[in-house]
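Lab manual, section 2.4: Encoding a predicted structure.

Procedure: take the sequence of the chain (520 residues), apply the prediction step described in section 2.3, and record the output as structure tokens. A sample record is shown.
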Amino acid sequence: MMSSSMPQSRTAALKWPAVATGALLLLSGCSVANSDSGSSAAGGNLRVVLAQEPPTLEACESNLTSTGVVVRSNVTEPLIERNPTTGELEPLLATEWKATSDTEWTIKLREGVKFQDGTPFNAEAAAFTIDRAVNSKLGCNVEGYVFGDADLKVQAVDATTLTVTTAEPDPILPLRLSFLEVIPTTTSTTAKVREPIGTGPYKIEKWDAGQKITLSSWDGYWGKKPAYAKAEYQWRSESSVRAAMITSGEADLAMGLGPDDSIGDLAVDYPNNETVALRLDGTKAPLNDIRVRQAVNFAIDKEGIVNSLYQGKHKVAAQLVPEGIVGHDSALKAWPFDLDKAKSLVAEAKAAGVDTGAQVSLIVRNAQFPKITELAQVLQEQLSQAGLNVKLKMLETSQQLTYQTRPFANDEGAPAVMVQHGNQAGDAAFTVDQYMLSNGAQSYFGTPEFDAMIKKADAASGDERKKDFEQIFGYQNDKVVQFAHISHQTGIIGKAKSVNYTPNSSSGDELRVAEMTPAK
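Recorded output:
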């Protein structure tokens, strides 16, 4: 059983295509439109600049980075919270939990908590949250990412006691529940909600679409009052613009900076959990032939990309999770850069009757992370050099998400989707289940044998679990090849000297404003 009072955490030469220089802005000493130049300390406001506007703040979509960075643990809160530094699960809206059978967990809830609309938080609200996100027809992103197809049976035993029953034994259910942001029973069950009500230290004051989101401190919060009265979020797609807003005093925190956004000691590196890769649609020609998918891997000069675009701060990736995630295989080697081998495999597939001239659609989200446009152009060039017909499609967030999650958008070509995957939970199940199962929420295809391996790993624990997931990542590279891994990222934020905050591995997904204080 876990129990506690309030957790401490809340107190070869790379051939580059031509890149247009007009998109690179030199902003030294200039002002950025639509930004408030007031001091954060003077008004008690924290000013954050993001790479993109969130598509929604819906609680059951909060595992999406662009949504979670605003809403998670600010507006809404989970029952159980994972400490991003230690990896341990800590009480939040739940005070303790234990397995009461192979498939049942009993959870005790915190008393005296209210939602921002004044309604009480209780077991009924917790059961409603789980049922809405996991068992409904809403198609919540968190369902596919965390829970898959299996429904959960939930029961409010009394006001402070909840039971959750799984179809099969699930040793990491408490970890899965840490991804569910709790909402009141008044929330719609037939449509997603753009602006949720939660129990967190901040409530949504106003969303000026296309301009700014403002959160204000909520006086009825059950925990410690946060230091900042308001948190204001703006967004700028160019990382150089976000960096300039820090140096000019127009923002206090800037997310997603690149290594060449020169702001000196105002740039703070932190251990990111994000991995960049191409996810290949193995159901359409030419990517339906494993030789072509192997050729994609051989054609990408990962070392060149890391060193030239990211100044060596990122690490070449051999798998979809970085070191520190349960199941990461440190012995797994990245595909070497071998353009001749890539060309040979494409020629071999063509000789066997594969339509290697069919279009490959390289799907990339604008402003998802620094240098993504340049990276996309490099990948298009390198895959073209291998003999593939590649069309680059740079899309806005809402368009790109139709390619990222089921049901996938129809495309005239075979999609190769650039993904930036962050395993926020520390366990490979949260990667493998959605990205590699045949019916995974973000998986194009799989095999029965591979599905069986994944299900076995999901049910395992301890050393057996780690070994099983290590084998899965090796099998993916050898037998399935749905992914062309590129790099494990290092995160960089810009932070004004007026703010005390130490970023952690979850900061890019869940920026907890209550953990920040004005510098003295």
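Check your result against the sample. Residues 462-480 form the longest helix (19 residues).
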